[in-house]
Design a protein that fits this description.
The chain is mostly helical. Helices cover 54% and strands 0% of the residues. The chain is built from four helices and no strands.
C-alpha cells in the first residue's frame, strides 16, 4: 500500500500550501487596510457627504437630518438654523462687510 507520503511524493502536507498562501494574502490586505489605506478616501466620499452619509458631519447637515427624522419640529429647526447659519453659513468665513 503506497501512499503519497511513503512513496517519495510530496505528501499530504502539500495541501496546506494553498491555505498558507491565502493566510499570507489576507494578512497583507488586513495590514494595508489598517495602515496605508485607512486615511485614503475614494471618489465616492464627496458624494456620500452630499447625501448625508457618514462623511456629512457639518452641524447644518446634522440639523437637517434631525428635522427630517422628526426629532425636532419646524420652529425649533428654523431657530437652530438661524444660529448655525451665523457660525457656519457662507458668510462665516470672515467675508462679512
Amino acid at each position: 500500500m503506497n501512499t503519497l507520503a511513503h512513496s517519495g511524493g510530496p505528501g499530504p502536507w502539500v495541501l496546506l500550501f494553498p491555505l498558507v498562501w491565502a493566510a499570507v494574502v489576507i494578512g497583507i490586505v488586513t495590514l494595508l487596510r489598517r495602515t496605508v489605506w485607512r486615511g485614503r478616501r475614494g471618489p465616492w466620499a464627496a458624494d456620500r457627504a452630499s447625501r448625508g452619509g457618514p462623511g456629512a458631519s457639518s452641524p447644518i447637515a446634522l440639523l437637517g437630518r434631525r428635522f427630517a427624522a422628526g426629532e425636532i419640529d419646524e420652529d425649533e429647526y428654523w431657530r437652530r438654523l438661524s444660529v448655525l447659519d451665523e457660525q457656519f453659513g457662507p458668510a462665516a468665513g470672515g467675508g462679512r462687510a
